[in-house]
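Standup notes
- DV: blocked on the single-chain target, sequence here:
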Amino acid sequence: MIEVACAVVFFEGKVLVAKRGPGRDEGFWEFPGGKKQENESIFKTAERELYEELGLSVVSENELWRYSYNAPDKTKIELIFIRCNCGKFTPKCSEHSEVALVPIPELTYYKLLQGDFAFANWLQNAGR
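- DV (later): unblocked, structure below
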C-alpha cells in the first residue's frame, strides 16, 4: 500500500487547494501533498510536500480523514488528509499552475480529483 499525505491548510477561514500543472491529471484541483517516504511519519510527509511544492512552512496538527482506492495497476493507495497550520501564507507554485483559498461550502464547485472530492464532501458535512 502507498500512503499519500494530503495537506489541508486552513487560512483565514478558507482551505487551500492547488491546480495540477502539466502532466498527470493536469487541470484538476487537489489538496497538495505526496507519497510518504520510508521512515517518515505521515505528518512529516505533509510538511515536506507543502514546502517542496508550494514553499509553505506548515505544522501538521492531526489526521482528519482517510480515503482508499486501487490504482489502475491494482496498487492500493491510501490518501490521508492532514490538518496543517500555516503562519505566513505566501505560496509559490512549482508543480501546480495556481492555488486558491476556498470557503468550505464552495470546495465541491472545483474540479477535484476523486479522493479530494470525497474529502471535500466529508468536510462540508462532518465538520472542520
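- Follow-up: Residues 42-54 form the longest helix (13 residues).
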